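Tutorial, part two.
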Amino acid sequence: MNTYIMGQGLAPGDTIAIVAPSAPLAGEELQKSRIFLETLGYHVVLGKTVTSDWGYLAGRDDMRAADINAAFKDSHIDAVICLRGGYGATRLLDLLDYDSIAAHPKLFIGFSDITALHTALHERCHMATIHGPMALTLGRKTATQYTLRQFAAGLIQPVRQGPFLLPPRTALRGLVPGFVQGTICGGNISVLTAMIGTPYELQGTGELLFLEEIGEDAYAIDRMLRQMEQSGLINRIRGIIFGEFTRCGPRSEAPFEFTVQQIIAQYAERWNKPALMGLPVGHGRQNGWLPLGVNASIQIENNGKARFIIE
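Running the prediction step on this input gives:
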């Protein structure tokens, strides 16, 4: 299995930088997020573009990239959390100082559009990152206790070995039986497919591919999964973990329609690699702490019982 470098866990008094790689600030959640992080015992500093906007972006590309480069290089900063998703992270990939980032590995946390940065750091820096809540997530009333507790615990112990902790009364569902081990990679399907054919695309060789999405119809997810297959990515991976598919329709069977769940099941069967669904990670109310670049295993029995274990 591949080896990736993980930033160290935090201790009280450590400093977290909030950066804005994608969309600009919206709402009052930033102040609430800052209070939440400070209540946990951390100092918080803001990147220069966190309160900026340039159209649908949080400042110009060079400024947003400079914030990220500076946060990794600054020895007084111990972790980097992204403000929010939206769009804009792929515009930064040519502007990042990958050598400097690789020389200063730190916890890097985000999801959604931040998949572009996770993937680039995965491939260029061999750095393990965290697919998890962003600053605005932490400040919203909809943030669940599961999400907040997973986040707080993850800052201290980024990799917690054992079965992935699930919210009460939830279970994983096996799609294709089998046992497989590998390094976790992936994220948002739309972003991953947009990166195919670029110098930053996900290779995924011998790894476990995690996928999640929001606001896409079943036919669009069908198209993107087929693109992943035709690009060769699916041939290279060992297993698949399907997370949250939030507001992806249709939700029930209708004439001339497939549900998202049917599409996922079709592709899992087609690919015939150990696959499970239902991981509470992504755009749903429950958003767990998922370390990318660490070793894990998928264990699925013939009756559909599934386990996802961080190793």
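DSSP finds ten helices and 15 strands in the chain. In part three we will examine how such features are distributed along the chain.
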